[in-house]
Amino acid sequence: ERMIVPELMQTEFTAGRLADEARRLLTDDSARAAMKAGLAEVAARLSIGSEPMDRAAAAVRSLMERVDKEEAIHV
Question: Lowest CB count within 10 Å: 24, 39, 49, 64, which one?
Fold first, then answer.
């Protein structure tokens, strides 16, 4: 709902624009703190309380258990 990190894409990604944004973050403590806080908020909103690799492993394990049960029924 608000810009946290400027999207420098395609024609907006120039050496000058990149340098300006980097300079702003390196010299403006409040801008840098605001970006870090915004990124922490994004990470918290995307987090569901567990590590992505743990969730992936659990999903694979669940699928393998279901397939094993289905194969046992068909035998």
Answer: 49
Cα 31 to Cα 5: distance, rounded to the nearest angstrom: 10
Structure tokens at 44: 């918290």
Q: What's the CA gap between 33 and 45, in Å, rounded?
A: 18
Instruction: Give per-residue pLDDT as tens, 38-50.
Output: 999 888 888 777 7
What residues have CB less than 8 Å from 28, skipping those under 6 apart? none
Secondary structure, 3-state, the chain: CCCCCCCCCHHHCCHHHHHHHHHHHHHCHHHHHHHHHHHHHHHHHHCCCCCHHHHHHHHHHHHHHHHHHHHHHHC
The pTM for the full model equals 0.58
